[in-house]
Amino acid sequence: RAARAKAMKFRDGYMIKSGDAVNHYVDYAVKHIQLKQGVLGIKVKIMMPYDPTGKEGGSTVKQSDVVIVTEPKEETALSVPPKTGYAQNYNTEPVQVPVQQAPVAAAQPLPVQ
After folding, report:
1. Containing domain of residue 16, as a range?
2. Where in the numbering of this chain does the Small ribosomal subunit protein uS3 C-terminal domain appear (predicted)?
3. Cβ–Cβ under 8 Å, residues 47 and 14
4. CATH code for the domain in which residue 36 is found
């Protein structure tokens, strides 16, 4: 009776598994070896480093999820406080604006046909 297939996985480091970056960063190879006991299959995935020059053999495309945080710009104080905004309207009474009514024309009855 034949033995069941077995799988062994060896992992180390960081590997991208999804997204467009897999097409640029992961090198993938499969090899099948015919032995007396049966077929032995080997799958290898190697993640290449970022190489902007392209001379070292790595990927020339930057990863989209790598974020560079820059220092914030210095804020300058306003010389005059803002005229509108939440802070200016807090605890103040609303200003009454007079409403002008437009003249309404008298409705004429529709002719009966």
Report:
1. 8-49
2. 2-46
3. yes
4. 3.30.1140.32
* DSSP codes of every residue in 18-86: SSTHHHHHEEEEEEEEE-SS-EEEEEEEEEPPB-SSSSSSSB-SPPTT---PPPPPPPPPPSS--SSSH
Residue 78 lies in a domain: no
Which residue, chain included where needed, has tokens 């010389």? 79
pTM of the model: 0.49
| pLDDT, tens digit (0-9, with 9 covering 90-100), for 10-62 | 989 888 888 888 888 899 999 999 999 888 999 999 988 888 887 888 888 88
Q: Which residue has the tokens 């297939």?
A: 5
Residue 110 lies in a domain: no
19 in any annotated domain: yes
From 90, 11, 9, 64, select the one nearest 42 (Cα to Cα): 9
Helix (H, G, I), strand (E, B) or coil at 88: helix
